[in-house]
Amino acid sequence: MTGNDFSYRDKKVMSIGIVKELTGLSERQIRYYEKRKLIFPDRTTTGIRKYSFSDVDRLMEIADKIEEGVQTHEIRSELAKRDEKQKTKEVREQMIKGQLNAHFHYRKL
Amino acid sequence: MTGNDFSYRDKKVMSIGIVKELTGLSERQIRYYEKRKLIFPDRTTTGIRKYSFSDVDRLMEIADKIEEGVQTHEIRSELAKRDEKQKTKEVREQMIKGQLNAHFHYRKL
DNA sequence: CGTGTAAGGAATTCTGACACG
DNA sequence: CGTGTAAGGAATTCTGACACG
């Protein structure tokens, strides 16, 4: 609650133009990888895509795989697997935090 | 050189629209604080302002000061002083890094 | 399959100015 | 002094499609 639960790295704040610059990819490629479900930008209420720094990193990984000849379909399942693990890990961490809170603040009120 | 010399926090990647959302300030205010030299966004070659997360934090501080009735002129000198200290600190850190490098990689080639 | 491009429209951003105070 | 707003233009982004393969 207090600090940088996910700070800057995961905040979706960049539009596609900067992502293009940062990654060296074309807008076409960036949008296409989204269509293939490799990347999941946010949208403003008016439909503009917003990306995070971690999205940028992920796009660079994707670009590497593509260059290696890996198809988007395969990249997708690799990434999905990793995302799943990551989510599980975060849930565990949250549970530990919760227990610590319960321990130290037990019936504090 | 290797890692996050300044990572995400200081990278100027957001356009004014998101900054507006993140800070709750109006575009007018954000641009005005720039004119008064409280904030220094980058510009794309075509003139679009780009801000960093630290710019966002700074804008919130500025907004607080303004609310307290402090004038931009005074805020400016406060911030300038702090920036100066920060820069000095960074220079010192760089020097230390340089010396460590010199020590460990002395005539490595 | 992955990517380039021209097309037309919608949303964003920019500057300088008038306004109030 | 700090901020709102309407004005007109320039730059950005979006989608669906044609193209190549």
Could you walk me through the main structural features you see in this protein, from its secondary elements to its overall organization?
The structure is a homodimer of 109-residue chains. By secondary structure, the first copy, chain A, is mainly α. Chain A has a single domain (16-104), classed as Multidrug-efflux Transporter Regulator, Chain: A, Domain 2, CATH 1.10.1660. Helix content of chain A is 60%, strand content 4%. In chain A, strands 1-2 form a two-stranded antiparallel sheet. The relative contact order of chain A is 0.11. The interface between A and B is medium-sized, with 13 and 13 residues. Chains A, B: This is MerR family transcriptional regulator. Chains A, B: It holds the Pfam family MerR_1. Chains A, B: Keywords: DNA-binding, Repressor, Transcription, Transcription regulation. Chains A, B: Residues 13-81 form the HTH merR-type domain.
What's the gist of this structure?
The structure is a homodimer of 109-residue chains. Chain A has helices at residues 16-23, 27-35, 53-67, 72-104, and strands spanning 42-43, 49-50.
User: Which word captures the global form of chain A?
Assistant: globular
- Helix and strand composition category of chain A: mainly alpha
**What series of H and E elements makes up the topology of chain A?**
HHEEHH
Would you identify the regions of chain A where 5 or more consecutive residues have pLDDT less than 50? none
How many runs of DSSP E, i.e. beta strands of chain A? 2
Q: Return Rg of chain A in Å.
A: 18 Å
Q: How would you classify the quaternary structure?
A: homodimer
Instruction: Report the CATH C-level class of chain A.
Output: Mainly Alpha
The CATH level-2 architecture of chain A is identified as: Orthogonal Bundle
- Note the total helix count of chain A: 4
- How much of the sequence lies in strands of chain A comes to under 5%
The biggest beta sheet of chain A reads:
2 strands, antiparallel
Strand order of the largest sheet of chain A: 1-2
**Number of self-contained structural domains of chain A:** 1
Distance between the termini of chain A: 18 Å
Tell me the greatest interface. Answer: A-B, 13 and 13 residues
Using the coordinates shown, work out and report the CATH topology of chain A.
Multidrug-efflux Transporter Regulator, Chain: A, Domain 2
Instruction: Report the mean per-residue pLDDT of chain A as an integer.
Output: 92
The percentage helix of chain A is 55-70%
